[in-house]
Amino acid sequence: MLRTGLAALAVAMTAGMTMAQTPKAPWESDILPPVLAWHGASERLVAPPSDPWITPSERTGLTASPDYAETRAWLEKLDAASPLIRMESFGTSPEGRDLLVVYASKDGAKLDPSKPVLLVQAGIHPGEIDGKDAGMMLLRDIAFHGKDALLDKVNLVFVPIFSVDGHERASPYSRPNQRGPAIQGWRHTAQNLNLNRDYGKLDAPEMRAMIGLINRVKPDLYMDVHVTDGEDYQYDITYGWAGYQGDFARSKATSGWLDQTYLPATEAGLKAAGHIPGQLVFALDDRDPKKGLGASPASLRYSNGYGDAARIATVLVENHSLKPYRQRVLGTYVLIEESLKLLARGGAALRAAEQQDRAERPAVVKANFGTSFGGGGKPLHTVSFLGVQYETYDSPASGRKEIRWLGKPDPEPWLLPLYTSEPALDLTPAKAYWISSAKPDVIERLRIHGVAMETLAAPRTVSVDMIRFTAPKLATHASEGHVEITAGPVTHKTRTVTFPAGSVRVPTDQPLGEMVTLLLEPESDESFFAWGMFPEVLQRVEYIEGYAIAPLAEKMLAADPALKAAFEARLAGDPKFAADPDARLAWFYERTPYYDDHYRLYPVGREL
Predict the structure, then answer these.
(1) Which of 108, 188, 235, 525 could tie 278 with a disulfide, CB 3.0–4.6 Å?
(2) How do the residues of the chain divide into helix, strand and coil, expressed in percent and rounded to 5?
(3) Is the separation of the CB atoms in 81 and 73 below 8 Å?
(4) Residue 7 burial (C-beta neighbours within 10 Å; 0-12, 13-18, 19+)
(5) How confident is the model at residue 15 (pLDDT cuts 50, 70, 90)?
């Protein structure tokens, strides 16, 4: 009945509506908390109705966002009218749409490599589309309204809609916790993949195209624009990076530049424009806002975790979902503009920091940070947090106390503990990893990442350390198109292996060596193995019949006193084993040369 009622409401809301006359969206009802009042200097950025280059979103008062076709048409018109703007396709989506990239530059068809590059990506989650409309406004102002000086020393690369198919699965109901735009895209792609879980594994054609674009334009600063969920607070533009404030950063020099140079400069610009910037944090408990905050280091599957491992300064922007779309778009515009200004005067220092990080070869790679924020451990420190007043009430629907935000800034800052998760695993990188030509898909994913490798022209026999799993565990449900596997305990053994022609040797003595370790060490929760890309090694394909193994086992007992003692000890210590005839015979089978030597053997060699 609920579905029927909502469907009827949707038809009534959308019938006859146009871009300028948008449907009444769910956020205009009473399901979201009251809006905090806001006005800021950035409101002057909005073009007047008479401006021939007013953007489609500005025509609605920044309450709605154009669809793919209208976005593309507007950008094509801008491209044709301005020598500073050039738009291309950098890939194709599963449903056949072009992935669009816009270059804003004074360099012509080829970017000057001496200039810093800012890559701004909007719409990785299409319902969170603030970056698209902010970027279109800024491109207009660069092309026609006197802001072309922003490009004197910097180049801007702008992806208006990353997940284009999800962008077109649009509805007023895609983001129930978010205040605008009126129609929002869907979080996942047409293949039901979350692109912001795909940076390491590279399943989606969109993500493969994006990593290709990154490797071509070589951004000095990569900005990924989102909208957050969760509790209410006063901040409108929050942002951060892996290793924020130096905690567990892989790219420590780059993280230091972001902490010490980028953060104060962009915060000052946002505040001057009337916005309230804040650190990217999440509530430990959405029903107890004062319990504390979490700022966990980012895993490789996320944009900022990828950037940290790839040695690219990467800023994850999470605009506050409960702020009006107009406010969020304007704040994003300011953040992009301030980033361009900062790169113009400080890009050389950022490049030096990134080069320093690319020269690092860590002896230990921290891994498996998990998803918690530190639980009951000691917090990193206490932070001052600009909260919003709230109350709790007994909900007859949930049967428990729920929180009700009151739409009023708390006059006193909250002093809250800030937690972070710590790595659960220390990995020792191999000197190199050997991958058989029998795993072309794994090799291809590494190539797309830009990993350096040697491809064997002829078979080669080498001595390598090999890992065997003793108790791997499959997940009970699918995740992002895979059934994940936890490696569990492993054993190591040196073996002589002949790798066929087409196999590769992947050294870790390279800028992406830490990423290679995370992807190829199977105990890493970001590895190709953990994502379920080596399921075949968990499958036994040959067996022995009881009529053959039983007499063989009897001969083994008679011939080997040590084996007999071990068997008897197992019988005495494990009643379940002793009562299971098949398990007893399997115990002997595993100790014969007939047993499958490749069962549970990870087929990636480790050169030590």
Answers:
(1) 235
(2) 35, 20, 45
(3) no
(4) exposed
(5) very low
